[in-house]
């Protein structure tokens, strides 16, 4: 085995062999038996490297993981002598080779075309069990994949990963979630075990990457049987990264206990625009410094529990007023602004060791105008890999979103994303078409096999590391975890108007809200009753709850107290004497709110975003 050393900011290219791409238009292939020109070149490359004792190191280098000691070789060049876009990495923690990366390189080089392609695909599946599904789920799977069950899809497409979803109406990502296969912690545990059983039979020998968007707040997939943290913005209001780390470590333990291996979180967007409802309380706050601290803590907490993380939405979705599920947002910031503000939390996530970065469908005008970042080599290889030094797995945002589907077919989108530098393709609009497109590109030479082998090497290295570092996860939603969630929720409560000490209400009270927040209303009423406050069904002092997407028209006239359980911006329009932000509607948040209203505790949070006409807190002595 050859010696290895870290790549120095991507400048030590070492040994590399490339296939020369041929024009698009080669015959399509749906099976693993037609390797094409790329495979021929790779075979020659392996023979040459093997004769020099560099076979595995060359493949690891191509994946951007470590570099081999080798004679000086110039970087492969493209037009005008510029180096071809290739994924460098930040130095690994030691000069010793990463065993997972070495193993991944060996396995990736041996895989057939169809197995290589399968590793980059991360689709949704229909059904709450791997092997037994309803007739409706079977029909949906047949329509998508030609087989009936999730286990059969894993086997047929040789999948590298899957995403589990839970579609709800009060969710800004609802439009892209075409299925619901999360019902309970016990059900998810059984489903995940069945999916891993299917994956264990695949040639790569790696566990399946099973992820979900468990961000907490409005984007929470698993709502029972696991600890429920307050939203990211609530943790930002607490301004306590150590508490954030503990909270996300508890969350990671629970996610691991049900068989999930990845969380497509945390959100690293800096919320600069109050009109940004697609991000909203998913963000930790409105300043690069605060968001960076929180992102680093969340990544550290999740990874301590053995869960892979994916900071998103690179290079930053916070300064937009367009929902990227529906159209392509434009980032008009200068490169200097982008670097100093939006990229800072991603740097923090990378420093904390994030395993993945999710690239958003964003038009970054200062770098590659008109091209969604997901499909921009300038953004992925130039900005993320070269400038920020990220050497892990790059995953796309959902490929069934409008900025993708309105431009390209599923097969073309898949090919363009991989060529741009993405590693994993999340939720292709058509799984079979994405596979066909990638196989055809391999056969034609448009997608050089060495490029895909390097991509899959990064994916397998991550999955082998997860397997090697697997944690034992104790009971979910334990008393200790619930205590951590309560502390986080309590630390977030922010009094934006009203007294800082003593009861904020007196006499009988009535809790009101829109119909969609009936459960939250009931939680607060129960918590206030437990705190000795007399809660009535009619009359009384009104405590009004406003939530996700609520505006001025949703405020209750004459309310003595107005509480924002999502973003706090609407409170600028409230006329209530007491205005409070909880940023979250969990049971723990309502319990903490009741304690503040009853005067049993004080609200110690400070808003992590600016609210026109209001201070960050009405009690600055505690801020």
Describe, in short, the structure shown:
By secondary structure, the protein is of the alpha/beta class.
Strand order across the largest sheet: 4-5-6-7-9-11
Helix content: 25-40%
Low-confidence region ranges: 1-55, 66-95
**Tally of helical runs:** 20
Instruction: Count all strands and give the number.
Output: 17
The fraction of residues in strands falls at 5-15%
Distance between the termini: 57 Å
Structural class: alpha/beta
Give the CA-based shape: globular
Instruction: Give the mean pLDDT.
Output: 85
User: Biggest β-sheet: count, sense, barrel?
Assistant: 6 strands, parallel
The whole-angstrom Rg is 25 Å
What features would you describe in this structure?
The chain has helices at residues 36-51, 55-62, 99-110, 113-120, 135-145, 150-157, 185-199, 232-238, 241-257, 288-304, 335-342, 344-351, 377-387, 402-405, 410-420, 431-444, 449-468, 479-492, 518-530, 587-597, and strands at residues 4-5, 67-68, 121-122, 161-164, 209-212, 262-263, 308-314, 330-331, 356-359, 363-364, 393-396, 425-426, 494-497, 509-513, 541-546, 561-564, 578-581. It contains 20 helices and 17 strands. The longest helix has 20 residues, at 449-468. Helix 2 (55-62) packs across helix 3, helix 10 runs parallel beside helix 12 (344-351) and helix 15 (410-420) packs across helix 16. The model is unreliable at 1-55 and 66-95 (pLDDT under 50). The chain has a six-stranded parallel sheet with strand order 4-5-6-7-9-11. Strands 13-17-16-15-14 form a five-stranded mixed sheet, covered by helices on one side. With 623 residues, the chain is an alpha/beta fold. The termini are far apart. The chain is 37% helix and 10% strand.
